[in-house]
Amino acid sequence: MRHFTALTAAGQLRAEGPREAAAHFTQPAMSEAYERSFHGALPLPPGELDALVASGVNAFLRLDGTGD
Q1: Which of 12, 25, 51, 55 gets the most CB atoms within 10 Å of its CB?
Q2: pLDDT digit string, tens, across residues 31-43
Q3: How many CA atoms lie within 13 A of 47 on its CB side?
Q4: How far apart are the first and last CA of the chain?
């Protein structure tokens, strides 16, 4: 949470506050991985989790980041 607090305070995120930023981050970064693994019941192929999380982080930054 401290990273979201710092980024929000610095004006680098569009979120209203750190809790909102964390919620916005969690969904794109993890939801597809949960779905593809049946909520963690099945392992993902090597590298797939990293790729899914990276894609989610990029989506978060495009949507909530200010580009500064």
Answers
A1: 25
A2: 889 999 999 899 9
A3: 0
A4: 20
